[in-house]
Structure formats: structure tokens, C-alpha cells
Amino acid sequence: MNLKAKSFQIRQDVLDMIYRAKAGHIGGDFSVCDVLVTLYYHVMNVGPDKVNDPNRDRFILSKGHSVESLYCILADCGFFPKSDLETFSQYNSKYIGHPNNKINGIEMNSGSLGHGLPVAVGMALAGKMDNAPYRVYTVMGDGELAEGSVWEGAMAGGHYKLDNLTAIVDRNRLQISGCTEDVMHHDSLDERFGSFGWHVIHAEGNNIDSLIAAFDEAKATKGMPAMIIADTTKGCGVSFMENKAAWHHKVPSAVEYEQGMAELKAKEAAANE
Amino acid sequence: MNKIANKQIICDVLMEHAKDDKDVVVLCSDSRGSSSMTPFADNFPAQFVETGIAEQNLVSIAAGMAACGKKPYVASPACFLSTRSMEQGKVDVAYSHTNVKLIGVSGGVSYGALGMTHHSAQDIATMGSIPGMRVYLPSDRHQTRKLTEALLADTDPAYIRTGRNPVEDVYEEGNVPFEMDKATVVCDGTDITIIACGEMVLAAKQAAQLLAAEGISARVLDMYCIKPLDEAAIVKAAQETKAIITIEEHGPIGGLAGLVAQVVMTSHPVKMAMMTLPDAPCVAGKSQEIFDHYGLNAAGIVAKAKELV
Fold first, then answer.
1. A119 interfacial to chain B (CB closer than 8 Å)
2. Which of A20, A110, A235, A258 could lock A241 by a disulfide, CB 3.0 to 4.6 Å apart?
3. Is B46 in CB contact (< 8 Å) with chain A?
4. β-bridge pairing B158-161 and B101-105
5. Strands, DSSP E only, in chain B?
6. In whole angstroms, what is the distance from residue B195 CA to residue B245 CA?
7. Over the stretch A130-150, which tens digit does the pLDDT of each residue have?
């Protein structure tokens, strides 16, 4: 499968969904999109036929506000009909603005930041206890790293040497109030996570090949959990959204929708050439 | 005098089950000693997880384990479990509906002179306000055993508060009436009903005996099931007796008193008195000294009952 083309197709679905619902967190959806595409179409042992398989890999979207990308990928993978997403954020829909485990394919509810890593540690510990073959993945935002519970989880993951656990930081350097380094700086993540007993890997987070190499390295890491710092661009894929904090949860106008869709279609076509 | 604390019974029951069920796991936050779980940790090290002093992590890890098929029992002081990790209880346990049982040990004012940081006179309010979170306050070791057995048989989230010290038995060994989520009628009566939970049940039972000597017939309900509340037993009490007293080791806001009053006022209004700890830091002292200070004892109940009847 051409994962690069897939990621631009998914972004079109996300743009459609957010434009229709007039709600969503498009900037983070687009920065994390390639990480999720790589996980769901290449790395993880998951699928609609495996939702009750005890040996399936486990995934938690800790930065739950990027749920639109996850929904579009799950629908594309066949976990539920794509038409379900027409109800996104509408009255009485289960497709709400954060992950909800009433939806096929979603393991845990999230939305409040700082929960995914500790929960993933619990899943990985259970896997170790049972000597189970599954791996556990969670994606955090970089603004999320200000939550103290992230570091409690990091401490436990390192302490218990959970080499069946891989965490990813969507390092787009922007959060709702602006630049992460101005809000609460997170430089020296290598040293921080390294000192907590994690193997830290850097990846270009909007480059599928770089991500695949990072996930391969994480899988090959023994005796410690892996932390992939994925350097990404918020709003990646649509020129006027890129690196703009305002697009954290802005809804595109009709003109912006048309322009964004045209750019994404062109990029999908180019990736297919 | 019974020498076994309720929390110790929970450990005993879990060890009995852990032998045959490797999915029964216990998690502590440097709290294995304070929660009487050291025997479990020593005997089942492969089924025990230590998180260090990190209650948020403690609860989230338990939820992750439950999502992968484990049956986690989280044992940590009630004061921290019901506040520091309240959001983890809300999101990862109740909202995600994971099979986690949160055991808040040394609850209420058990920690006595250690002060308000260590009191949990708000845990019914905090944990009970979470949609999908059940709340139980067992009264004695015999009921605690029955409750723990019942909880092992279900898969829903729950918060259980126990005290720190051994308490006198309310029930006789071998004769412990217990039906899950139904209040236990400790003694029947026709003039007044005393509804109590946790360590206050014993005081209610003693008060009923004192009242009987004065010709007042008091019914005592052990409302160990705070949520789901046994509303039918409350309505029945309101219809069959002339007044209701609630008594609890909890502040006045969001506890047993308010929950019972909601049922009484919307079904069959009768006179009520609500005996609680104050909405303030409690005085220093041993549990019984604190109870006595605020009139949460048999004599206090008798005095209230006479005012009402």
C-alpha cells in the first residue's frame, strides 16, 4: 500500500468531516496523521476481525482531540461504515469529539490529557504478566507533556522495563496558546525520557519511511520501553494551516475548504505517481 | 474485641481467590503496609504491582490492566484515592468501564490526628458523583467478606471505603445477612429508622438497644451500598416509621444524608435528622474521640431520636 497517498486521502476525509460538522481539531489531526497511518496500515496487528483477539496490539490516542484522524482511519480500515461519520459531533451520535470505546476499534476513552501513557503502562504490564505477544502503542501531544501524570507513567514504564510498549510524541511545537516552548518548554526530551529509562528515537513525523524505521527500531529495543519523538508540522498537508496555532481547532470556511481539498488531492495524486 | 480490620479481610479474600485465578491482581502506591496487603504482595509477587507514591498512575495502570483482562484491586489510602486520582477514577475506570475495584483504606477520620490531608470525609461525595462508579462502605469484617466475594463476581467499577482499625462486630459469625445492593436490616422497629453506613452502623445498633429500653422501637438499616442506594428500603422505612435519622463518617455535603433525603422527600416525606462530620477540618484525636466530639455515637443518636419521636 502507498502509505503516503493514503495519508493524504485520510486528510481529505478529515477535512470533509470537520467542515460538515463545523467542529474538530484539524491542526493536530494533520500533524499526527502520518503516525496513525503508519501504525494502522503497517505496524500494528489490529483489524476489524481482531477486535476481541486477546493478542491484538493495543492503541490509545492519548491526545484524544485528534480523534477525527483516528475515526477516518478506523472507517477506512472497516471497523465501522464510513457513513457513520456523517453523524460526527451531532446530536446523540456516539462519534463525539474524543475517543469513546463504545465505538468498534477504540480501546479506551480519552480526552483528558496525561492518561494515555499510564494506561498503556498497565496494558503492557498485563501483557508481560501473561507473556502475551501483543505490543502497546500510545500517541501523546507535546503540550500534553506538561501533565505530571505523563511522568508518573514514564517512571513506571522505565522501572518495569516494558519493551512491549512504544509511546510517540507528536512534536508539532504548537499548542492552543501558541509555541510550546513559550507556554512550558519541553526541549531536552531525549535527556528527560532517557533518564526515566526509555530508549528515545527521533523520527520525521510526517515522513512515512522515517516513521517505519523508528517503529522497527522500537520493536527491536529490548529491556526498555521506546519513546519516538516524531517531529511534525501542525496542519501538515494544507499550506495555509501549517505551523499556525490558530488552526488548533479552527473550522475552515467554504473557500478554505475548497483550497485545502484541492491541495490534498494534488498531493495524493503526486504520491501515487 | 475483634482484632481484625476490615481492610485485612479484603486481603484474605483476595488471596483465597488469587490462588486459582491469576487475573486477580493487587496494586499499591507504597501502601501495601497501610492497606494490609503485605501478605498478598509476599505470597503473590507475580500478581502484585507497586507504583510508588503516584496515585494517578496507580489507577490508570489498573485500568489498563483491566482492559487487558486482569481483575485489579487498587489499595491506597481513601484520602488520596478519592481526590488525587479522582479523575483517573472518572475517566479510566468509570467512563471507560474497566473492571477496577478501588479500595480506599483508612477512610473517614481513621488517620485521626494526622489531620485533614489524611481524612476522607468527602469520598462518598467525590466518588459517588462519578457516573458509573459504585460506592460501598461496609460496617464490619463479616460484611466486608461478603461484599468482597460479591465484587469478585462482577465486572463493574466500584469504590470501597474501609477504616484503619479493627471494629467491633455488628454481625455474628455464621449469621451474616447479605444481599448485594440491598440494605441489611440490623434490627427491625416501628417508631424510627436509623440509617447508617460503615463504622457508624455499630453506634446505630447500640442506640437501638438503648432506645428499646426507653420504649422507643428503632429500625436500623446498614446502608453499606451507598451507590446504588437501596431506595426501596428507605421508602419502606419512611412509610412504616415516623422519622429517619442518618449517621455517617462523612461531611454534610453529598453523603448518605443528602442521598437518603432525596429519596424521602420525593417519595414519603417524614421528619429527618442528619448526623455527620462538619464541613470543616475535624478535631485531632482517635476515631472514637472524634466521633464523640461531634456526637456521632449511640448517646447522640438516642438524643436525636427523642427529639424526633
1. yes
2. A235
3. yes
4. parallel
5. 24-28, 48-50, 71-77, 101-105, 134-136, 158-161, 184-187, 192-196, 218-222, 225-227, 243-247, 271-275
6. 6
7. 999 999 999 999 999 999 999
Nearest CA in chain B to A152: B57
- Substitution target in A112, A129, A136, A144 with the highest count of B β-carbons within 10 Å is A129
pLDDT of amino acid B2: 85
- Provide, as residue numbers in chain B, all residues whose Cβ is less than 8 Å from the Cβ of A127: 68
- The one-letter amino acid at B110: S
Identical fold between B6-161 and B184-308? yes
Share of chain B above pLDDT 70, in %: 100
Looking at the complex, does the CB of residue A81 fall below 8 Å from at least one CB of chain B? no
Give, in order, the Cα–Cα distances in Å from B27 to each of B24, B66, B74, B83: 10, 12, 5, 18
Q: Chain A contact for B88, CB < 8 A?
A: yes
* Angle at alpha carbon of residue B223, lines to B217 and B227, rounded to 5°: 150
Q: What is the pLDDT of residues B5-34, one digit of tens each?
A: 999 999 999 999 999 999 999 999 999 999
Q: Is the pLDDT of residue B259 over 80?
A: yes
CATH of region B6-161, choose from 3.30.1130.10, 1.10.10.1800, 3.40.50.970, 3.30.70.20: 3.40.50.970
Bridge partners, residue B272, by sequence: B244
Residue in chain A nearest B50 by alpha carbon: A156
Specify the CATH number for B184-308; select among 3.30.160.70, 3.40.50.920, 3.30.200.120, 3.40.50.1370.
3.40.50.920
Query: For chain B, what is the radius of gyration of the CA atoms?
Result: 19
* Residue among A115, A137, A138, A161 with most chain B CBs within 10 A, to mutate: A115
Q: Do A109 and B52 touch (CB under 8 A)?
A: no
The whole-chain average pLDDT of chain B stands at 97
Tell me the ipTM for this assembly: 0.97
Positions in chain A short of pLDDT 70: none
**Residues of B in Cβ contact (< 8 Å) with A101:** 96-97
Q: What is the pLDDT of residue A187?
A: 86
Q: Are A118 and A152 in contact (CB under 8 A)?
A: yes
Domain extents for chain A?
A: 3-272
Yes or no, beta carbons of B67 and A58 under 8 Å apart:
yes
Query: Does position B120 have pLDDT exceeding 90, yes or no?
Result: yes
Is the pLDDT at B3 greater than 90? The verdict is no
Residue type, B185: V
Contacts of B61 in chain A (CB under 8 A): 118-119, 121-122, 125, 153, 156
| CATH classification for the domain delimited by A3-272, as one of 3.40.50.970, 3.40.50.2000, 3.40.50.1820, 2.40.30.40 | 3.40.50.970
DSSP B92: I
Q: What are the sequence ranges of the domains in chain B?
A: 6-161, 184-308
